[in-house]
Amino acid sequence: MPPPVLCYHRIGGAPELGVTRVAQSVFERQMRSLAEAGWRTLTLSEFADARPTPHDPRRFLLTFDDGYESLAEHAYPVLERLGFTATTFLITDFIGRENRWDLRYTWRRLRHLDWAHIEHWRARGFDFASHGARHRRLTWVDDVTANDELRRAREVLITRLGAEAGRAIAYPFGAVDDRVQRLAHAAGYELGFGGVRGDHGSPWHLPRVPVYMWDATNTPFGLRQDGLGAVGRFVAHVANRCAVGTSMMQAVRGRISRPPESAAGA
Fold this sequence. Notes:
Blueprint: E1 5-8, E2 10-11, E3 21-22, H1 24-36, E4 40-41, H2 44-49, E5 59-66, H3 71-74, H4 76-82, E6 87-90, H5 115-122, E7 127-130, H6 143-161, E8 168-170, H7 178-187, E9 191-193, E10 209-210, H8 227-242, H9 245-253, H10 261-264
Parallel strand pairs: 1-5, 1-10, 2-3, 4-5, 5-6, 6-7, 8-9
Helix pairs in contact: 6-7
């Protein structure tokens, strides 16, 4: 069994009507508590090569989805002070742009990390990988659209950051089935991260536990081995499965307009 994987989205910043924002104070307390308890984070390469060992069980992959700009202010510095690292999954068509792929859960639209932020933190030991080109729910779209989402995002990341950035995809909304796994494999991804339950037998459907606003204990549910952890993971699974508002908006629109090429590659 691979090491556990946590998935955060937003840390601090403007309040939202959704559930993905975790207060900066909560995030900092959780990371500090984990460090004091002997936990350490893995790079994406370390995770890919990890083998279960009874002598070093407190290892986990820390991830962020969507790549919001506020991570550079509220999350990455906290991790760097603790000697932690993280992998951020980027929506490549929206790098440096507002989150117009999503429903508006905040008073003002939120900005995503730009290439300057990404390259700065990558040089400091943080990893970046694919969250698709436009954050489409891949199980709801045809093969042509899914291939475009998977391949174009990977090509952008490899061109800008190198081959390592093209190794992994976190499927938007954690939505994955056998067809999407095959497409991800064919597109060149070595790893694919799904939802809470995943499939430990497939490297293209690895489990990952989201951390939502109510997951505020010192040890997030995804790392707990007690009853509270089991309940918390079940609730996270249900919440993730119910998060269809953005997908429905995208389906009604039919498609999301791509940003101009010059902006997407800036």
